[in-house]
Structures
1.
Amino acid sequence: MIGQADFVVVGIGAMGSSILYQLAKRGAHAIGVDRFAPPGARASARKRNSFC
């Protein structure tokens, strides 16, 4: 099944990759896309000094 997927997961940080794993365990054809390289590269980034 080249070029076809049952699911597309957008954002493959911690949660997205977990979802992809669970879908694959159940036999679904899933694709994960992320805007960062490597995927999930900024999954732990947080804003500092964002609260007054």
2.
Amino acid sequence: MKLCFLVEEQYRHDGMPVEVIGRLTAWGHQVDVVRPGGSLLRMTETVRTGAHDAWVLKTVSGGPGLTLLEAAASAGMTTVNDARSIRGVRDKALAAAIGRGRGLPLPPTYAAARPELLAEIPESEYPLVVKPADGSSGRGVHLVPTPDQLAATLTLLAGETMLIAQPYVANSGVDIKVYSVAGELYATERRSPLHPDHAVRERRVRLSAEVAAIAARVGLVYGLDLYGVDVVLGPDGPVVVDVNDFPSFRQVPDAAARVARAVLALARAGTATVPGDALEAHPAPGVLATAEGRAALPRPQIPAQVAAAVGKTG
């Protein structure tokens, strides 16, 4: 197969996607790498129908790669993940609205195009977590304990075009990161960016049925096949605090090979899943609407009780 990877500058030497590209090349596939942030792009020539079997995006949120991926999708080419789905999670304000509207356990979310507007949030909502709406990799995430500390935090976030704020969910200082590789779920725990002094060794952990059901539903709601979900265990149960497309897949066993196989299966099957108004009409992440797609993709490794829980939440 012939694939095009869009790779941002900061990921040029990162294991994900470099090792995936290496594995695909070793298997005899042709992989072209485009650096959307470091190249002059002649858009009318870069995106050509039929030039590649699929386009794969590994870029920072807010970078130019998504524009190029959307151009490829508009020309009818397969993209991994689906370009519309990526837009739905990279804008965290939009992601919150979609997720809460579809019943996912996300915190209430405020959005402000002008930072000073966050001062209107009631004191009862504090402590707050404030971050850029297009942030990634923990960039610019701040815990604001009281209203009188908001101004100092906003100074640190000067220049951001949109900010979101969410009431802080009390937790142990440990985030659970669930990775989905075309339906196969893996969980790790790691230190929360809000608790940098908390000593936590990143490691794989057992995935509870409750968290697995939430992670699987995230893929259904946003229409993603390769994604990560950040979850904290609050006093009222698991809460989703972030969703990202094509994450690092750290601690996933043989991650490069698993992701490479998923990319090939999605490329062969065609257009990936997309979100819509009727969740029941969606195929599950990694399961395409066509018979060929269903046969080509790996079966989701989700326990039966988790699958039942996903169905009950719809």
3.
Amino acid sequence: MAERVRVRDIDEDEGSRLLRIIRRGTGSVVTWRRAQMVLLSAQGMPVAKIAEVTFTSADRVRDVIHNFNADGFDSLYPKYAGGRARTFSLPERREKIKKIAKSKPAEHGLPFSTWSLAKLADFLVAEGVVDDISHEGLRVLLREEGVSFQRIKTWKTSRDPDCAAKKARVEHLYAIADGEVIPEDGEPEVVFCLDEFGPLNLQPHPGRQWAERGGRHKDPDREPRRRRRATYNRPHGVRHLFAAYDLAKDKLYGHIKKTKNRSKFLEFCRYLRTLYPPTVRLSIVCDNYSPHLTTKRCRRVADWAEANNVEIAYTPTNSSWLNRIEAQFTALRYFTLDGTDHASHKEQGSMIRRYIIWRNRHADDRRLRAVVDRANVA
């Protein structure tokens, strides 16, 4: 059995050739990977360890070793036999390239954490997806398919035991609001997404501005650039924006309060209730912030909802991204707060209220839609 899983004796020239393939990347990714397995086996490493090092299965390692013992270096290079190779139409080929680019190399048995254009191009050729493709051509194709090289962001997994049920309910409500599902009897006809934005401090916010260029080519007579004020003490307190997004009407509503607690939350919910007749059932999507919840000691939220034909739908813990109002907050910050330094809460509140009026009148604004669509996850 040991003879079946060990590579035959290789001479010095063959060993040097294997090293060149591995070190210089000669040939495709598949060739490089097979050469690595053969060299590790020649050095006495067992099959199980080779499979662990090369991120593949032990059976795959045995196949590579058997083929090398039988056919030598020819076995390292991919062969396509067994009839005519499958031909891809142009849309199928583009979709296949996009699918492979979005996958992890480890899913294909390769010991890489991410695809480079060179490795991806070699793999596509080895798999027969394309006969040949340049790195720039691959870059252009991926860009046209909406795929770009992006930084990986952090993600906090929800530990809510009812995560699946809550997520499914919220997505069902969104399907009703989007017209994809007809609500059954007793289901909400109108869906609001509610959350608090803040705390709103009186502080200079980072942003951008148009200004004359500086440096060596600056105009010596130009006025100095506007600068952000540096603050260390903020004795003016904070404010909180209670906001709700009506999915059906594509409208944003907001009230600014000094505090955020269960009483203020119910006060804002009562305002939302007045926007529709009492016979119209509403659903309010919100997170698990304590003032939104019904507890054993305080059932005011549940009692109010039952008495006013309202359903309170909670997103799972650590899943506030499911709330569509988060994208509206991104737009509010971008258009209203970035680059500002308000002197008073009255001035800041007035700016936010005027933005909400503008946003509801220009819901189809191209730049607004771009910011919201980019931030929207749910």
4.
Amino acid sequence: MVETYKLNPNLTKTAAVAEWLQQRIDWQIYQPNQRVPSVRKLAKLLNISSFTVVQAYEQLVAINVLTAKPSSGYYVNAVASSVEPNSHTDITAKYPVIDTRWLVQQVFSDIPRDRSPGSGILPSDWVRNDKMEWAIRQVTQQADSFIYDYGDIQGYLPLRQQLAQNLNTLGMQTHADNVITTAGVSQAVTMVAQLLTQVGDTVLVDGPGWYWLSSCLQQQGLNVVAVERDHQGPNIEQMQKIFVAHRPKLYLTNSVLHNPTSYNLHPARAHQVLNLIHEHDAYIFEDDLYAAFVPNGQALRYASLDQFERVFYATGFSKSMASGWRVGMLVCPDEFVDDVLRVKTLSTMNTPEFGERVIHRLWTQGEYRRQLKKVQQHLYSAHQKMRKALPKIGLVYPEHTQAGIFVWVDTGQDTAQLALDAYKEGWLVAPGQLFHPNAHDSTHLRLNVSTTSDEFLAWLGEYLDN
């Protein structure tokens, strides 16, 4: 056969390199135990960076196609599957496996935003703040006064005070002593779970719910059980049965602009949930990461009803200001502050004060408020557009959806297969199975309204018609 060094233009560079090499292994150009081209050689042949080749090789090592030998290179795994030369077997269909790890890898890949309706973040031009560089320069001028010290293990005090003040205006009464800065909401999740649970304990999440959350908790050895979630909140009858059968110690949820549905919490349902929490001596971890997108912040939260008696409340700025800063904050019930600080000390020691100072400066100078108004307007317009576009391809815009980042769409077809087929065409989508801890079949897609293009909707409509 005539060799070609052209990559599939519909895939990311990393995925295209992996596909290119996988094909040549299946065609037996590279035999079991044979060394494949060195990183530098393949990078030169394909006219790409060595870093991209390394990423592709490591992905193939992870799925046992290649074996890495230190100081020697990469070799075809002796047990790697192969087919007869010139077979028309669809190689791409075997790669990748759609799971949480794959989706996270693709989110951090170089797939363009306009090809990523399944991503979880906003376009950079939506969240870009014209004052960001100014704030960084201001903090840099003060760096000598704090950069060489560990700082306060609890986090930058003025930022904690600002959060407490903001929460008080929203009806959640707390103070800076109960606030701990974190490396995003994700660190807050792991710290609270580590504090309140042991391996084998049951925790409760929403179904559907944030895909990373379930996988993270399962990795910690916890039994993750989902309670069905609708536009009012969790199914209270099912939740009651779960408490009796499994006695979960912790319920982790979004109450505002829920991920992936963009539903809010109904007051009656919130009271019922809190009654169960108190009755069964459990706690709530309330992830309020998307609250910034609610105009004036006016939405019901468990923390506003419970006042932090049995609610751990977490929020952050990765979605609304700058994903790279990884600045989050956790509000704890009084009795747990010292324990959470101990967990933080033994895990990360501290969170970087530089980013916390930059966030504080933008917040207190009014830039954050102005930025949020711009994002809220973008989201509202995107939802209005989606409301009109979905019926044109035979889909229903869910009635109770609020103007958050996501819309939870029922396609009427298995979206796991849809996601694989979309990937072959260069699209990154988030199938519904990822949003349930047991990964059961689903006909839903989570669409990011800010990155779902007309071109993708046209592709989706044509796909669903076939």
